[in-house]
Every structure is written in structure tokens, then in C-alpha cells.
Design goal:
alpha/beta; 13 helices; single chain; elongated
Length: 313
């Protein structure tokens, strides 16, 4: 497992972040799934097919209890973290889910064998009674990369066949995906944890001007230290994270990074890059020329150069 895989796995294990992702997926951001209702499960998926053993490892798997209208729903929720696009992801997820469904059947059969409570030939054959039920499974793929996911989103997307009469008899399998490139600001606002900021920073990580604007959103993007570290690890921004702080201002961290780079002379064109970032912020009305000058140390006349007669002050 690579370093970035370790980072995303540990980040998504947090019950608050995990619940946040599924509340976005299922309930459009409403806080229905409670972090306290989640219980982490073994991620090893093992199934016996004739004499062969299939063994796979999920990234994160949790059981959940969702209570709505005094009714409790029990289900399994799995997350697969992808920093790179996986072009066979629908089949991979399908296998995970199929093995876990099979595991539930085996567990029920073992219970019946112990209790000796099956009575009909069909029940003995199945190891499963007509009244038995299993839990639904929802697997969610979270793409932690800046490029738009261009892989298949369902089993049918992976077929060369496009005959609708044939496909009508081939069950499809839809892949649930959260992809930063597809999230606008209103979608990001539906998350309630630092996952929102992490996905937003990944979304803009290849666009320095867009990232600067995002950092300055609402007067300065504030993130918890765990999220800030994940942003550093996944975007390679190398922002300064002060010790002993629970939260950091990403705008200030970015400014410190630029200043440190200039002081050490590690990168050519830092001043020019900085100028373009702050000029863009002035052009888009996020900062006035005076505010941009105070933050960056760049003279106001340079910041407004070429921007015309806009109301820049």
C-alpha cells in the first residue's frame, strides 16, 4: 500500500468523516447517519468458490444503524479510496459486495446448523429459510485526485455490447462516486466535516489562482489540523502547519509558504506567480487592490496594471 493510500484510509476511518460522506451520497447532506451508530468491521473479504479461495481487502467497512420515523435500518457501508482512476472499478466493487453478501449467507447457515432449526428440504439445501434476511451493502468510491474521473460508472459501461434487448437481461451494477472535479461550491457546502475542504483543495490543486480564491473563501478557509495534513499529503502543497494548533487558516499558510520560498530562493518565478494570484483575486473582486497589497507586499500599481478602469479600491 502506498503512502497516499495509507493517508486516505486513515482519514476515512474517522466516524465523523465516514458518516459525512454517506450523508452527502444518500441524503444530500442531511445529517441522518450518526457517527455514533457506526462500527468498524474487518475489511478482509473471503469467499470459497468450489476449492478456490478468493480474498480481497476493502479500504474501510462499517456497519450502520439508520433510524428514521422510529424504524431502524441495518446495513453495511464500504468506502474505496482512489487517488488514481481505476478503469475496472465497477467489477471490483461488485466482487467486494458479492463476497460480503455470500459471507452473510454463510453466517446464517452456520447459525441454523448450530440451532438445528431448519425443517424443509429447500431450507436444508439453502442453509437459509424463507424468513431469513441479509443486510444491504452500499459501496462508495471517493476519488482523491484532481482530474475528472473518466472511467466507467457501471457494469454496463464496461461492455462493448450496446444492444438494449440483450442488456435488458444483464443486471447492471452502478458505482457510487464522489469526484472533486464534479463538485461545485454548493455541493462542497453540503459536507459538514473537513472532508469538504480536503475535496475542495484537491479540486483546485492544479489551478493556483482557483486554489488561492478557495483559500480566501469567507475571509480565509479554516481547517482542522488532521485535514490540513491530509491536504499536504495528497496535494503536495507543503503548507506550514503550526504545532499545538487545532485549526489553521489556509490563506495564511499559503502566504507563509510563498514567503518561505522567496526567502530561500527555492523556486524561480515565485514573485511572478504570487503577482498573478493576487491580481486574479483583485480582478474577481475577492480582494481590493489595497487589501491584496497589504497581504502580499506587492505595490498596488502592479496589482491593477492591465485591469482597466474597474472599481479596484
Amino acid at each position: 500500500m502506498g503512502a497516499t493510500d495509507d493517508v486516505t484510509k486513515e482519514y476515512m476511518k474517522d466516524n465523523n468523516v465516514f458518516a459525512d460522506a454517506f450523508n452527502y451520497l444518500i441524503y444530500n447532506g442531511r445529517q441522518v447517519i450518526k457517527p455514533s451508530s457506526l462500527q468498524e468491521l474487518d475489511t478482509t473479504e473471503i469467499a470459497l468458490v468450489e476449492d478456490d479461495k478468493i480474498q480481497k481487502y476493502r479500504d474501510v467497512l462499517k456497519s450502520a444503524v439508520i433510524k428514521k420515523n422510529d424504524k431502524a435500518t441495518y446495513l453495511l457501508l464500504g468506502v474505496e479510496n482512489q487517488t488514481k482512476i481505476h478503469y475496472a472499478m465497477p467489477v471490483r466493487n461488485l466482487l467486494y459486495d458479492a463476497i460480503r453478501y455470500h459471507t452473510q449467507i454463510i453466517e446464517v447457515a452456520k447459525r441454523h446448523k448450530k440451532d438445528k432449526d431448519l425443517s424443509t428440504k429447500s431450507e436444508f439445501l439453502s442453509g437459509f429459510s424463507k424468513e431469513d434476511k441479509i443486510m444491504p451493502i452500499i459501496t462508495l468510491v471517493i476519488h482523491f485526485g484532481p482530474d475528472k474521473w473518466d472511467g466507467p460508472l457501471s457494469l454496463h459501461d464496461m461492455f462493448e455490447v450496446d444492444d438494449v434487448d440483450i442488456l435488458a437481461f444483464v443486471p447492471d451494477y452502478k458505482m457510487n462516486l464522489i469526484d472533486p472535479a464534479d463538485l461545485d461550491d454548493s455541493s462542497l457546502d453540503k459536507f459538514s466535516t473537513g472532508l469538504s475542504k480536503l475535496l475542495g483543495c484537491i479540486k483546485y490543486s492544479k489551478d493556483k489562482e482557483g486554489l488561492a480564491k478557495y483559500f480566501m473563501k469567507d475571509g480565509g478557509l479554516i481547517v482542522d489540523v488532521k485535514t490540513a495534513q491530509a491536504i499536504n499529503d495528497l496535494t503536495k502543497l507543503n503548507l506550514s502547519i503550526p504545532e499545538g494548533k487545532e485549526e489553521i487558516n489556509m490563506c495564511k499558510a499559503m502566504e507563509e509558504l510563498i514567503k518561505d520560498g522567496e526567502a530561500r530562493g527555492e523556486a524561480r518565478g515565485k514573485q511572478s506567480e504570487k503577482l498573478e494570484i493576487y491580481r486574479g483575486l483583485v480582478r474577481d473582486g475577492i480582494l481590493s487592490a489595497r487589501q491584496a497589497s497589504e497581504r502580499s507586499g506587492i505595490p498596488e500599481e502592479l496589482l491593477v496594471e492591465g485591469l482597466g478602469s474597474m472599481n479596484l479600491f
